[in-house]
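Quick one:
INPUT:
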């Protein structure tokens, strides 16, 4: 091999090395970009673009017109119908149904009263016609007269085993994959997330805190009256091995819905949220609260619209007012049919894994 041939091969080897290195780097960049896709289960479209643009605007310190410091990045989410499904009845209702035989056994006078009579006869159609007060009375009766520790254990066991009557999935697997991704995305951008729901605060804490990776103290919901019991005010301390405990009274203390939601946000969070997500008329007031009390461009309002009968359910009942207001105020109406590429996480995956 002469000198010219040797030089030619050296140059050729150098070019190939540079090309290979560039290709590897490009592949790594593409792979990293795929992995960093914040909302993979959201379809490309205006809603996804608005969410990402909002987060980019308010987390960029150089964007002085819209920047929100981390301590003020408060995001609140309704639960039923917003983070997980709620049909044919809100899922906490099934926990109440499962509790009825035990409650009636301790209180036989209930067996001839509605809705206990119908539930014992497995006539669940009565549940669809119950008034709001009747639902709350059912929950108060089936969720009370036990210690807080006992109640938490009952919910935890129920969440591990109870399945939806139609899909046969665990209720805790009926969460919305796109919303799990949104929760995770916001958390990486230093948003502090809260659940603000009409559902029972203790029920959600035990069943869903680990699912959403939201701490118990960031879950706000409806609650019963608590009583602290110790040797001074109780004559039957063997109920909890002679230790003091919290007792759940059969009295509704707070129904966290409509006007109570903004009030409880102010009471328990102490700041106006900059992101609010809901799905029903019960969420209208907290969407208004964020819209009316933040500067223009510094709040994001999301309304989940159930319009996908094939993959989930299709209904507007109970959301007529908020849909009308959303259109009037130009809030973001999220179409489950058009904006979600998938609805539920893949069965068999750990819920915490599918968010990443």
């Amino acid at each position: 091999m002469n000198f010219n041939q040797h030089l030619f091969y050296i140059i050729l080897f150098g070019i190939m090395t540079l090309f290979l290195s560039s290709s590897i780097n490009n592949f790594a960049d593409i792979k990293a970009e795929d992995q960093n896709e914040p909302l993979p289960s959201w379809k490309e479209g205006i809603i996804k673009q608005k969410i990402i643009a909002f987060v980019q605007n308010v987390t960029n310190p150089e964007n002085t017109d819209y920047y929100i410091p981390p301590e003020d990045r408060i995001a609140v989410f309704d639960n039923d119908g917003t983070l997980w499904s709620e049909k044919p009845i809100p899922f906490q209702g099934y926990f109440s149904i499962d509790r009825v035989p035990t409650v009636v056994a301790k209180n036989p006078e209930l067996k001839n009263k509605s809705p206990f009579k119908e539930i014992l006869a497995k006539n669940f159609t009565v549940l669809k016609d119950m008034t709001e007060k009747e639902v709350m009375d059912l929950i108060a009766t089936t969720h009370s007269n036990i210690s807080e520790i006992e109640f938490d254990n009952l919910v935890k066991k129920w969440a591990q085993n109870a399945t939806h009557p139609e899909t046969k999935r665990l209720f805790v697997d009926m969460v919305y994959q796109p919303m799990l991704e949104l929760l995770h995305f916001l958390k990486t951008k230093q948003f502090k997330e809260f659940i603000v729901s009409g559902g029972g605060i203790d029920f959600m804490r035990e069943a869903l805190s680990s699912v959403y990776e939201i701490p118990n103290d960031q879950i706000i919901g409806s609650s019963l009256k608590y009583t602290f019991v110790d040797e001074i005010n109780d004559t039957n301390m063997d109920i909890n091995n002679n230790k003091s405990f919290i007792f759940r009274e059969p009295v509704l203390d707070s129904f966290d819905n409509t006007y109570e939601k903004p009030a409880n946000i102010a009471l328990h969070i102490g700041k106006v949220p900059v992101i609010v997500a809901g799905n029903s008329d019960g969420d209208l007031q907290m969407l208004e609260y964020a819209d009316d009390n933040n500067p223009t461009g510094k709040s994001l309002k999301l309304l989940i619209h159930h319009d996908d009968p094939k993959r989930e359910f299709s209904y507007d009942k109970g959301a007529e007012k908020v849909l009308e207001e959303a259109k009037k105020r130009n809030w973001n109406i999220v179409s489950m049919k058009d904006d979600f590429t998938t609805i539920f996480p893949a069965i068999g995956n750990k819920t915490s894994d599918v968010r990443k």
